[in-house]
Design brief:
8 helices, elongated, single chain, mainly alpha
């Protein structure tokens, strides 16, 4: 064990391997086996609680732009977007839901993916100008048209 301490000071990986070996040894000693299992189960429960708390916070932090909350505005926005989405209202609603709170670069990546998947029309380059204009006016994509055109292909 004296040699291990020297390596622990110099190399973190040896320390981690050493602690795993110690746990392995504790687990195989019958008198400590129950204690070790309980401790591991408690750590797992604590991690699950922390993760559950994180999920709840994340749900509370979901950002929905103010202009997408109004059903009337949604209907107008959806009608403007439908021709670009092959008149598929379901896809328009899904797209709006997905881009809600997204970073501009993620929005353009999604547009590129949907064009490739034939969910957004490529006719007359509508995705280059018309889609940017509608999303920009709605406040859903705030970057410039030049930025949009550089990222959307």
């Amino acid at each position: 064990m004296g040699d291990t301490k020297e390596y622990i000071k110099g190399d973190k990986h040896v320390h981690q391997a050493g602690s795993v070996m110690i746990k392995f040894a504790q687990y195989n000693v019958s008198e400590h086996q129950g204690d070790w299992k309980r401790k591991e189960e408690q750590e797992a429960e604590n991690l699950e609680k922390d993760f559950d708390d994180f999920e709840e916070v994340k749900k509370d932090d979901d950002v929905v732009p103010e202009n997408t909350k109004s059903p009337q505005y949604d209907a107008v926005l959806i009608e403007k977007l439908k021709p670009i989405f092959y008149n598929n209202e379901k896809d328009v609603k899904l797209f709006l839901k997905e881009i809600s709170g997204m970073k501009p670069s993620d929005i353009t990546d999604l547009v590129n993916k949907w064009v490739k998947d034939k969910r957004i029309s490529d006719y007359g380059y509508s995705r280059k100008g018309t889609l940017w204009k509608i999303l920009n006016e709605a406040g859903l994509y705030t970057k410039s048209k030049q930025n949009w055109c550089r990222r959307v292909y």
